[in-house]
Specification:
This protein is an alpha+beta fold. Helix content is 44%, strand content 14%. It has a three-stranded antiparallel β-sheet. A three-stranded mixed β-sheet has the order 5-4-6, with no helix packed on it. The N and C termini lie far apart (62 Å). Its main location: cytoplasm.
């Protein structure tokens, strides 16, 4: 916990109990958590934390560069503690599972658009969509079962 408090101080934030708990949760989980998931996990550490308090902490930690907010289309915003690089994400269309994908080409922004329209680029955010291995396997099994039912009819 002292290491987490030190990270907060180095970002110019007071290490309050809610901030320490929320940052510790996201550092420990190493996943992409929704605000609700963060609240539940932080409450286990603190005992009490209001939803508004958690949102305030998430906003402060994101603004300070200690967290990254990811907003996949059609999904609740998610937060992660991996902020020191320009990585991307893969999202399962079925269950919403999300995985990090390291940048494939060098340093940030690691991708170059066909036209930057005069912008000075410093980051690229890419989200690939598909099916995770578990959902793909379930889809394959369902397809086989559906085919067997059609043949027997």
């Amino acid at each position: 916990m002292e290491e987490t408090a030190a990270r907060l101080r180095s970002a110019g934030l007071r290490p309050t109990a809610p901030r320490v708990a929320v940052l510790a949760v996201l550092e420990a989980e190493r996943q992409h958590l929704t605000a609700d998931e963060v609240v539940r996990a932080a409450r286990k550490r603190l005992g009490a934390l209001s939803v508004q308090g958690a949102y305030d902490v998430l906003t402060a930690l994101t603004s300070a560069g200690l967290l990254r907010r990811i907003e996949p289309a059609g999904s609740a915003a998610r937060y992660e503690a991996r902020v020191a690089d320009n990585h991307h994400h893969i999202v399962c269309r079925s269950c919403g599972a999300m995985q990090d994908v390291d940048c494939a080409v060098g340093e940030a922004p690691c991708l170059v658009p066909s036209s930057a329209a005069g912008f000075v680029l410093d980051e690229a955010e890419v989200t690939w969509w598909g099916l995770c291995p578990d959902c793909h396997a379930r889809q394959q099994i369902k397809s086989v079962n559906d085919d067997e039912m059609e043949e027997s009819a």
